[in-house]
Design goal:
The complex is a heterodimer of chains A (617) and B (236). Chain A has 617 residues and is α/β, with parallel strands linked by helices. Chain A is built from 24 helices and 17 strands. In chain A, helix 3 packs across helix 4 and helix 7 packs parallel to helix 11. Chain B folds into two domains: 125 residues, Roll (Ubiquitin-like (UB roll)), CATH 3.10.20; 101 residues, no CATH class. Chain B starts with a strand and ends in a 6-residue tail after the last helix. The model of chain B has no long low-confidence stretch (mean pLDDT 96). The chains are: A alpha/beta (617), B alpha+beta (236). At the A-B interface, helix 18, helix 19 and helix 20 of A face strand 4 and helix 2 of B.
Chain lengths: 617, 236
């Protein structure tokens, strides 16, 4: 049991001593992305080699949380960011593990495992030099690729739980003041000032009070919260203890979707360990303050990310939202004052307490402080997690960190904010990324999903995709969302199938406005955003679909026909071998043809052809 | 006491009273479907929306849930309110094209035809939840619930099977605003929610009047004997 700062320091010192005997450290990313690319096999194979060589007492092999560059996983990092190897074990596990061993023993760098950059001309040794990492400011993710998330002592030795110690000596009102002055705003999407929320909850009458961490991340393509819970669960727990103390709550809940088994597993270990060390439970640091946390596993409904639906779900009721004319800080979980924040918001708290509100407020823009984690996905070269200061431009994120568009195609739009957000076109690439700028553009920050689209993405089809998602995920409680969104889907689906008619776009706009105004919760109120933002910036594309029955991007199957240009086709046979339905025929060095009756219009031939011989109309 | 305005008229209300209750008391016409005197509302149908102005802010709110507050200005028929109501009614008309209640209300708001494909699998159910709530809170049986989500949401007994908890009282039928729930009485048997109930005969007039299970349920809760309950309300 830890009751004093000396004991905390003692554990840290002992841990440093214990790990100090190892001459070398190898960190293997064991986030979900890298695990699915085979990181655990790399870990086992390397451990086997190390043991066989009798190096087990000299080399420390660590399983860490997500490093961020998921596109190039499994990622292995040596020492203190000295060398980064990517796609380890992808070609040949045995060979790559031997190369790792060689690096450990002889310090020889395996060039074929180095990151080669977007244009493949330069090899980077240290992750510090890779633009993807160099352009980031890591606060929340700062320990993500370094710590073993299952080892509490490691978290303590990296400065962990100092914020709890410091906060417990502060006046709760002062803590709230600090959070307020730091400018921290909710990372789950809304961007509501966290300090204001805490204060309202503290001032609301009623006992007991609850703190809740929202880890029900559900936006397609988003995995920030997941990586945080998997990679540094103690940061979330520490933030919640501070929050609990500030608002006089003794019980916390972490709501995690059950589709995140690794997050549930690592959070469970972290909570058990924190209890064992006396950092959760009664009389934390001899302060007289009691606090504990329970994990609540969600069933995977998107709507349960909405605060009132989430609370309803914890109560054991159907995950349906309720009107928030009386806020959840006053009447939330079991009608008691409840303070809910996103896991990323909670993870910011220890940093603010440790380094001071002035430090946090010095990062970002006047209205949006600190950093934000984004999951950069879609047609960008470097997909993965990036943490950047608020106010950075979209251009920097997509082209500098993300390395630009795959295949050097033309950028078309970036979708931010998930199904509640919208698509932002190229002319706004220089816009700073902060809560208010994105909202002004008709999109939103959301929880931090960023889907990059290129000229081969049809914006009507994108709207159709998000509407389909929302139809499936609407809880069905209120009429505008349940009935209205599916009717919007029907209209957009018709447009994509070539059955659109004049007036459809205006009808969509009218319906969208009624849904925005009339829906019960934020899911319904924001459901029309993907449609409205694509109409706003890509109205022409809708019109071409409706009037000319054409899909300019060649995506909508009913409106697209792929053909081979006889003059350009060299008969290389690439398209024929890649076609998933085998509908392309032709002999070597002779012009190929597509059997239209079998073609599923997937566009693989178009994407594969190096001679621009495949056309679509 | 709080004081505020509805369509420019000054009104007073108890703190916490809903805007809808105040408006109805003052004679303003606000349509509702999922609201009931004894059960309140969850804000499902969205028909009772009004525009609430507070300083420079204006919002569309469901009057059934919005608590009366000093100084607010409520408008029951602003353009935004009418847009939401018309849209809700058009959407419900497409969902339940055979519901006379919806047809009538829609017509009142100028909607005679829905621009959408008519559903043929939803009956007249608008998912107001009143049947579920009356069964649980007024009857105390809790035999009904909602299953599924989004467009697939529906009212049902657990797994759609005849429910042990259903006492066949028909309170759900009585409260349903659209007449969706099927009930049939024939040869001394009532059929509702896929379950058959034997009807009790009044020993005085010899008429069938209530399911035996319902009378047994009342007897167990109230302490009134079965003999007393068997006598129909007309003969008491």
């Amino acid at each position: 049991m830890i009751v004093s700062i000396e004991q905390l320091d003692g554990i840290a010192a002992e841990h440093t001593k214990k790990t100090g005997v190892f001459g070398k450290t190898v960190k293997i990313c064991c986030g979900t992305g890298c695990v699915s690319s085979g990181a655990l096999k790399v870990y086992e194979k390397l451990s086997e080699f190390i043991n066989a060589e009798g190096l087990a007492d000299k080399v420390l092999i660590k399983k860490t949380g997500c490093h961020g560059l998921c596109e190039r996983g499994p990622i292995v990092v040596f020492g203190d960011d000295e060398i980064l190897y990517q796609t380890v074990g992808k070609r040949n596990l045995e060979d790559d593990a031997r190369l790792l061993l060689k690096t450990i023993r002889e310090g020889v760098i395996a060039e074929n495992l180095l990151y080669k950059g977007e244009d493949k001309t330069k090899r980077y040794v240290s992750p510090r030099d890779i633009p993807f990492y160099a352009g980031q400011t890591r606060v929340v993710l700062s320990q993500n690729g370094i710590l073993d998330p299952e080892d509490i002592e490691e978290y303590i030795s990296s400065g962990g739980y100092r914020a709890v110690y410091k906060a417990l000596a502060m006046d709760p009102v002062e803590i709230i003041d600090w959070i307020q002055k730091s400018g921290l705003r909710g990372r789950g999407g809304g961007g509501f000032p966290t300090g204001t929320k805490w204060r309202s909850c503290k001032d609301a009458p009623g006992e007991p009070r609850y703190v809740i961490a929202n880890g029900d991340e559900g936006d397609p393509g988003a995995f920030m919260d997941r990586s945080l819970m998997e990679g540094n669960p103690h940061a979330v727990i520490e933030g919640m203890i501070v929050g609990g103390y500030a608002i006089s709550s003794h019980q916390g809940f972490i709501y995690v979707r059950d589709e995140y088994p690794l997050a549930v597993h690592r959070l469970s270990i972290a909570i058990d360990k924190a209890r064992e060390y006396g950092l959760l439970g009664s009389n934390i640091f001899n302060s007289g303050f009691d606090f504990d946390i329970k994990i609540f596993r969600g069933g995977g409904a998107f709507v349960c990310g909405e605060s009132t639906a989430l609370m309803s779900s914890i109560e054991g009721k159907t995950g349906e939202p309720r009107a928030k004319y009386i806020h959840t800080v006053e009447k939330g979980l079991w009608d008691k004052p409840s303070n809910l924040n996103n896991v990323e918001t909670w993870a910011c708290v220890p940093h603010i307490i440790n380094k001071g509100w002035e430090w946090f407020a010095s990062i970002g823009t006047p209205e949006s402080k600190g950093t934000k984690v984004f999951s950069l996905v879609g047609k960008v070269k470097n997909t993965g997690l990036v943490e950047v200061p608020m106010g950075i431009t979209l251009n920097e994120i997509i082209f500098k960190l993300g390395g630009g568009i795959q295949g050097n195609r033309k950028f078309k739009a970036v979708q931010t904010g998930g199904p509640s957000g919208g698509c932002i076109p190229g002319e706004y690439l220089e816009m700073p990324v902060d809560f208010d700028s994105l909202t002004r553009l008709g999109s939103m920050m959301g929880s931090g999903g960023m889907i990059v689209m290129d000229e081969r993405d049809c914006m009507v089809d994108v709207a159709r995709y998000f509407l389909k998602f929302l139809v499936d995920e609407s809880c069905g409680k209120c009429t505008p969302c349940r009935e209205g969104v599916r009717r919007m889907f029907e209209i957009v689906d018709n447009i994509c199938s070539g059955k659109g008619s004049k007036g459809d776009v205006e009808h969509l706009e009218e319906l969208a406005r009624a849904i925005q105004l009339g829906s019960l919760c934020a899911l319904g109120q924001s459901a029309p955003n993907p449609v409205l933002s694509t109409i706003k910036y890509f109205r022409d594309e809708y019109n071409v679909h409706i009037e000319q029955k054409k899909c300019p991007a060649g995506v909508c199957k009913a409106l697209t026909t792929f053909m081979i240009d006889a003059e350009k086709c060299t008969g290389c046979m690439r398209c024929a071998s890649e076609c998933p339905v085998g509908c392309i025929s032709g002999e070597k060095k002779k012009v190929h043809t597509i059997d239209q009756s079998k073609c599923i219009k997937c566009g693989t031939c178009y994407d594969m052809c190096k001679f621009d011989a495949v056309k679509y109309a | 006491m709080v004081e505020f305005a509805i369509n420019g008229k000054k009104v007073t209300a108890e703190k916490g009273e809903s805007v809808l209750d105040v408006a109805h008391r003052e004679g303003f016409d606000i349509p509702t479907l999922c609201y009931h005197d004894t059960l309140g509302s969850d804000g499902r149908c969205r028909l009772c929306v009004v525009e609430v102005r507070k300083g420079n802010r204006k919002r569309i709110a469901t009057s059934c849930l919005y608590p009366a507050e000093s100084g607010i200005e409520v408008f029951t028929e602003s353009p935004d309110v009418l847009l939401v109501r018309k849209t809700v009614l058009e959407l419900l008309l497409a969902r339940c094209p055979n519901s006379e209640t919806i047809q009538y209300l829609a017509k009142e708001y100028g909607v005679t035809q829905a621009r959408y494909r008519k559903d043929n699998d939803k009956g007249k159910c608008i998912l107001c939840n009143l049947c579920v709530k009356t069964c649980e809170l007024n009857v105390g049986a809790a035999a009904l619930g909602m299953s599924g989500k989004g467009p697939f949401k529906k009212v049902t007994t657990p797994y759609g099977e005849p429910s042990n908890d259903c006492i066949g009282c028909g309170a759900c039928v009585a409260i349903c605003p659209t007449g969706h729930i099927y009930i049939e009485e024939k040869d001394g048997v009532r059929t509702i929610w896929n379950k058959r109930f034997e009807l009790a005969r009044c020993p005085k007039c010899n008429r069938y009047h209530a399911p035996v299970e319902q009378l047994a349920f009342i007897a167990s809760r109230s302490g009134t004997t079965m003999e007393q309950l068997l006598i129909c309300p007309d003969c008491k």
